[in-house]
Amino acid sequence: MNPLFRKPALLALAALVSMTACAAESAPATRAQAAPAVSAPAKAATAARTPLAQAAGAAKHVAPKKPKLEIADITPMGETTEKVGVGFPIIVTFDRDVRDKAAAEATLQVEAEKPTDGAWRWVSDRKVIYRTKTYWKPHQKVLFSAHLSQLPGNEAAEDVSRRFAVGTANISVVDTRRHVMKTYRDGKLAKRIPISAGRGGLVRNGVDVYLTTSGTHLTMGKKRVETMTSSWMGITDPEDDQYYKEEIPWAVRISDSGEYVHQSAGYYQYLGRSNQSHGCVRATPEGARWFYTIAQRGDVVKITGTKRKLDWRNGWSYWQLNWTQWKQGSALGTDTATAKKG
């Protein structure tokens, strides 16, 4: 039986409605898999002496200025920790609400070895996301910099930067009507995997949560074995006929609402023939393991053939917005910002 995990509290109400029945026992580990906070401590206090104090043999210490705005987190991790897919976003979280978003956004810079147009979009008072117009070119380095010390009154802030490593262009296309997933690597077909997608049939708040969402997903993380349970339905009693708790191998998460590409827990006779899951993309043991092995955060997984549309706020599904829509979320207007050559 294919599971679904509990919706994280941070998702918007619209995304809560779009929950999918392929649930993990633990909450999505976006922050856990992302880099730790990068904000730097305030600069050390500067000791100063006046002639009078020197004469008296006493030192007067000048209290350090505290920055008004710093960065609490950057996703994804740096080049020495992971390689990312060509769809990856740069997610910047500040340590407090940003009052002047335009000024803060103006201090953020992206430089790529293979430049492409990109823009920032604010999704909350503390979080801003950078997405490119088209996918990043593979096999390159991208440098993000934040010059927060340039903000008036924020001179004590530590400027930060992080370099990302873009890996192979992994783009998978899931056809839920033909029950197959095709994975392309750097433009060449590398694998055809028989799959079974969401069967439908469980409507909550007007949404069939047993249907897989159609749209452009990004891989967000993976686990060798993921525990999936019926708790998303409020069923936690092992005596209940609908209760389940299963250990699912080769699980690659593609949304916040519980969708994964993973090994089918049995039911192999349906793979490549019909849709029988609770919303996830079930694959053969060999195919799921192969996909898990190559998966990088930010890889593209396009799903087609269902009536249920993926919400752009569900996980890293930012490619659901077209370029014009995406740029409207910038505090600096809709002019295209280019990722300069590093």
From TrEMBL:
One of its GO terms (molecular function) is acyltransferase activity. Keywords: Acyltransferase, Cell shape, Cell wall biogenesis/degradation, Peptidoglycan synthesis, Signal, Transferase. PROSITE patterns: LD_TPASE, PROKAR_LIPOPROTEIN. GO terms for cellular component: extracellular region. One of its GO terms (biological process) is regulation of cell shape. Pathway: Cell wall biogenesis; peptidoglycan biosynthesis. The active site is at 262 (proton donor/acceptor), 280 (nucleophile). Gene3D superfamilies: 2.60.40.3710, L,D-transpeptidase catalytic domain-like. Residues 170-304 form the L,D-TPase catalytic domain. The keyword Transferase applies. Residues 1-23 form the signal peptide. It holds the Pfam family Big_10. This is L,D-transpeptidase. The lineage of its organism: Bacteria, Bacillati, Actinomycetota, Actinomycetes, Streptosporangiales.
